[in-house]
């Protein structure tokens, strides 16, 4: 009973033995079927059966391509100059044919891929039946037989008729090997696609020129009146002159005609030559279109990014002119667009989007993990959280003197600086003021994200800077199952706020009051946090119990609290209420309200009089009445 072999174990075996150096040399069609069971008993093909991707067999195929190139030149040449077929070229032809006879025999031992199961078939009977039933076998045999040599052996006579010249043209069947070689090279990343395609176009052109010239010379040589031919009218007794003289004339005519120059010195004389000229020129139209189309495609493909960049820059210039944008803003837009195209190959999104998630995660770990660990906000968090965090980070580049964050814009992302430097700026009374400078592993934009307020500062690059960006939404989603890491992050954030310069704190409204509330309600001692002092609770057991609960969110919800019933007329100083960050529990809310209003409440109502039972139902800027 015949057996099939999965190619996958063979790939492992051959790679481990050092025979496959590059995965691009393995045919993409040699893939195992889904559900194929691979075991150690299927690591070997049957005896005397060769794998189609075997390195030695590939070298043999490459050697045959060299012989095919000779056959492609010799077959039309022997048709035109028949005496060389039984003369100087005959021994070479016999040697070449012998190599192809060996290849025919080898083909009966080459395993093939079953297209229905995608398994390698190594049963020799199946391999032989498949080869014999296909067109390849009779054509391989016909293109290999030395008909003129066999005729001389069986008859003992030398025959120089044209019939053997046309039979020799069957060797052109071997050209499929050249086509297969170019197809494989075009898919092999070790070779330039441009130069592989370029060489293929040159090979097609040379073969067309050579074949047309040889056939045109054959028309003259086989004509009944040699002087009434395109070459006989110029070269007397050309058939008995030097072979290379006739070949030179033929190539000259073919090239001049192919390039549509047509000097007129060599022109058709009889009807047969005129018909052939018409057919050749029609063929030239198709060949020229093929060559021009392919070359244009190669050139356009290589310059596609340049064209796209020029179009984008022109659109920016037109947009800036129509909307009368300031010159400085136009320069920023142009600089950012140019940097985008210069760093396109470094952007990981386009490269990684089609890869499995595990590979994308590994790449992100390699690129961003060390930077994230050195950031103050993530000091002391768990390894698992860091691993999830870096997976969601996106790399971006900014040219010099470009705003990364604008003051008062909506806070949707925060940034970690990988390289370069940025300035922290603010605007007062229409003037720009410098506050601080950030370098590698520093963060920007996290204050607006954490407090859910418009960004308090403008962040502008000093020089070419690389940053990694993390969105507010992704960060919040990752923190929900990591309550202890969330407490560590809040503790790090509070310590960072406490260390800010006074002039920066002044630019963040109500930050001093919020910072006092955070210290009481949202922080816990964290033993895993390094280089930060744990906040003190002054021994308050209620605060410790409250802060030990799992936090529901790292991003604070701001609410406005009032110390009276919603239907009561409040005092003038309580009309506006007090803005606070929502604690984790109603009990914590009561304690905070007691601190703000000096009296303990027992109920929390909304503006419409409905009583609040769960804090999770509250939204940003809700008004709460505590009494």
TrEMBL record:
Keywords: Ion channel, Ion transport, Membrane, Potassium, Potassium channel, Potassium transport, Transmembrane, Transmembrane helix, Transport, Voltage-gated channel. Residues 377-496 form the Cyclic nucleotide-binding domain. It comes from Juglans regia (English walnut). The KHA domain (rich in hydrophobic and acidic residues) present in the C-terminal part is likely to be important for tetramerization. The segment S4 is probably the voltage-sensor and is characterized by a series of positively charged amino acids. The pore-forming region H5 is enclosed by the transmembrane segments S5 and S6 in the Shaker-type (1P/6TM) and contains the GYGD signature motif which seems to be involved in potassium selectivity. Potassium channel. InterPro entries: cNMP-bd_dom, cNMP-bd_dom_sf, Ion_trans_dom, K_chnl_volt-dep_EAG/ELK/ERG, KAT/AKT, KHA_dom, RmlC-like_jellyroll. Belongs to the potassium channel family. Plant (TC 1.A.1.4) subfamily. It holds the Pfam family KHA. It is found in: Membrane. This is Potassium channel. CDD domains: CAP_ED (cd00038). PANTHER family: POTASSIUM CHANNEL AKT1 (PTHR45743), POTASSIUM CHANNEL KAT3 (PTHR45743:SF27). The lineage of its organism: Eukaryota, Viridiplantae, Streptophyta, Embryophyta, Tracheophyta. The potassium channel is composed of a homo- or heterotetrameric complex of pore-forming subunits. Residues 523-544 are annotated as: Disordered. The chain crosses the membrane at residues 57-74, 94-114, 135-154, 201-221, 242-263, 275-300. Coiled coil: none annotated. GO terms for cellular component: monoatomic ion channel complex. It is a multi-pass membrane protein. Residues 558-627 form the KHA domain.
């Amino acid at each position: 009973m015949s057996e099939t072999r999965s190619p996958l174990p063979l790939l492992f075996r051959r790679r481990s033995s050092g025979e496959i150096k590059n995965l691009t040399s393995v045919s993409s069609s040699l893939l195992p079927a889904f559900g194929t069971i691979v075991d150690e008993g299927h690591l070997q093909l049957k005896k005397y059966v060769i794998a189609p991707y075997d390195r030695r067999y590939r070298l043999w195929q490459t050697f045959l391509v060299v012989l095919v190139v000779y056959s492609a030149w010799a077959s039309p040449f022997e048709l035109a100059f028949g005496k060389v077929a039984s003369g100087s070229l005959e021994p070479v032809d016999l040697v070449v044919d012998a190599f192809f006879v060996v290849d025919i025999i080898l083909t009966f031992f080459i395993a093939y891929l079953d297209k229905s199961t995608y398994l390698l078939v190594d049963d020799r009977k199946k391999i032989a039946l498949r080869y014999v039933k296909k067109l390849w076998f009779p054509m391989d045999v016909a293109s290999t037989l030395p008909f003129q040599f066999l005729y001389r052996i069986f008859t003992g006579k030398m025959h120089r008729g044209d019939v053997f010249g046309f039979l020799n043209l069957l060797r052109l069947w071997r050209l499929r090997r050249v086509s297969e070689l170019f197809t494989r090279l075009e898919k092999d990343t070790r070779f330039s696609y441009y130069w592989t395609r370029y060489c293929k176009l040159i090979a097609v052109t040379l073969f067309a020129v050579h074949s047309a010239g040889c056939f045109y010379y054959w028309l003259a040589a086989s004509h009944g009146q040699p002087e009434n031919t395109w070459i006989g009218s110029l070269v007397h007794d050309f058939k008995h002159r030097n072979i290379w003289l006739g070949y030179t004339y033929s190539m000259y005519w073919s090239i001049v005609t192919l390039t549509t120059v047509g000097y007129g010195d060599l022109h058709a004389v009889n009807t047969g030559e005129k018909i052939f000229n018409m057919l050749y020129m029609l063929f030239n139209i198709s060949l020229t279109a093929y060559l021009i189309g392919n070359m244009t495609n190669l050139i356009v493909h290589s310059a596609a990014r340049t064209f796209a960049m020029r179009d984008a820059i022109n659109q920016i210039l037109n947009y800036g002119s129509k909307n009368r944008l300031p010159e400085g803003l136009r320069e920023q837009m142009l600089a950012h667009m140019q940097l985008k195209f210069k760093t396109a190959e470094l952007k990981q999104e386009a490269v990684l989007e089609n890869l499995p998630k595990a590979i994308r995660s590994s790449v992100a770990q390699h690129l961003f993990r060390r930077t994230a660990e050195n950031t103050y906000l993530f000091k002391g968090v768990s390894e698992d959280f860091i691993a999830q965090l870096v997976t969601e980070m996106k790399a971006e580049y900014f040219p010099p003197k470009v705003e990364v964050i604008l003051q008062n814009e909506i806070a949707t992302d925060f940034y970690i600086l990988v390289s370069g430097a940025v300035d922290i700026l603010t605007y007062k009374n229409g003037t720009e003021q410098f506050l601080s400078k950030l370098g590698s592993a520093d963060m920007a934009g996290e204050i607006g994200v954490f407090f859910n307020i418009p960004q308090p500062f403008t962040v502008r690059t000093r020089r070419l800077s690389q940053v990694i960006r993390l969105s507010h939404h992704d960060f919040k989603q990752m923190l929900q199952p990591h309550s202890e890491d969330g407490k560590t992050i809040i503790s790090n954030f509070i310590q960072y706020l406490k260390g800010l310069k006074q002039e920066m704190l002044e630019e963040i409204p109500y930050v001093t009051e919020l910072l006092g509330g955070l210290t009481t309600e949202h922080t816990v001692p964290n033993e895993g946090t390094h280089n930060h002092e744990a906040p003190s609770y002054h021994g308050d057991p209620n605060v410790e119990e409250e802060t030990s609960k799992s936090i529901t969110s790292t991003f604070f919800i701001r609410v406005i609290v009032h110390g009276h019933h919603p239907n009561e007329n409040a005092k003038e100083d309580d009309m506006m209420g007090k803005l606070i960050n929502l604690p984790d529990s109603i009990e914590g809310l009561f304690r905070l309200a007691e601190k703000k209003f000096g009296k303990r409440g027992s109920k929390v109502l909304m503006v419409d009089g409905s009583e609040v039972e769960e804090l999770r139902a509250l939204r940003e800027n809700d008004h709460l009445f505590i009494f």
